[in-house]
Amino acid sequence: MLKISPSDFAYLYEECKLCYCLKVKFGIYQPSMPMPGGFSTMNTKIQGSLVGKNLKTLSNDLPDGQVINQEGWVESITVPNADVFIKGKYDLLVKNPDGTHTLVDLKISKPGDDKIDKYATQLAAYKFALEYPKSGEPIKITKLALLIFYPESVAFVDGIAKVNFPPKWLEIPDDQAKFLNFAKQIDDLLTGPLPVEGKECKWCAYRQVGEKIAHPVNIDDSSNHENLDLSKSPF
Alpha-carbon distance 8 to 13, whole Å? Predict the structure, then answer.
């Protein structure tokens, strides 16, 4: 049984099926591209400042609900009709007035309705893990949402730069049947033969070009490095 991480769905899985399989099946990761320190700090500070507070303290435009947990790890039972399980870390868990919960993913990004489709499977996977945990009590999730921050303006007051980050709330349709079908597609991918390299995957192109340069076919010909046709390289 293989572990799948919801955070891989929006980018790695969509960008290159081969790189996704290499990570999940063999533990071969793409070289890391760390988030700039400023974004990581802002993300952590925003999340941390909300824990224990009602969302309406952030903005009256947000729904009523108390943030009760930040960056919680989850691990699910085996997904039905697949040989995979969910393991990962969600951003925020909000307790609704009726005792149910809203699962929130916080993004520092330009808001847009395209984000709804992009992150739907990620949030649906966390919902499944919370409602069907490997251990512990299940948590009922009735809403999924993105809380998006994007700078609109900057003002300098008394030597301090104050950035205006108005929050944008986007609700994600809850479609567990769609998620289960998606998980089955991932399972089929992981249990089948390795897929071809992604046509637009720069890491796959990097491997190809790097291999040709580092290990030319004729190692006795020192001119190989100069004679390589790299016109198709994306770099």
Answer: 6
Q: How far apart are CA 227 and CA 232, in angstroms?
A: 14
How far apart (Å, rounded) are the C-alpha atoms in residues 76 and 69? 18
Instruction: Give the residue extent of every domain in the chain.
Output: 2-191, 201-235
- What would the CATH number be for the domain defined by 2-191? 3.90.320.10
Gap between the Cα atoms of 132 and 141, Å rounded = 11
pLDDT in tens, 120-165: 999 999 999 999 999 999 999 999 999 999 888 999 999 998 888 8
CA distances from 58 to 43, 49, 66, 153, 167 (A): 15, 10, 11, 18, 8
Residues 125 and 184 sit within 8 Å (Cβ to Cβ): no
Task: Kindly tell me the sign of the dihedral angle through the C-alpha atoms of 61, 67, 72, 75.
Answer: negative
Q: What is the pTM of this model?
A: 0.85
Q: DSSP states of 139-165 as a string?
A: --EEEEEEEEE---EEEEETTEEEEE-
State the Cα–Cα distance between residues 100 and 86, nearest whole angstrom.
21
In angstroms, how far apart are the furthest CA atoms of the chain? 74
Instruction: Give me the helix-helix angle, 17-26 and 176-191, nearest 10°.
Output: 80
Whole-angstrom distance, CA of residue 8 vs CA of residue 14: 9
Closest residue by Cα to residue 80 from 7, 216, 187, 155: 187
Q: Is 60 exposed, middle or buried (CB count within 10 Å of its CB: 0-12, 13-18, 19+)?
A: exposed
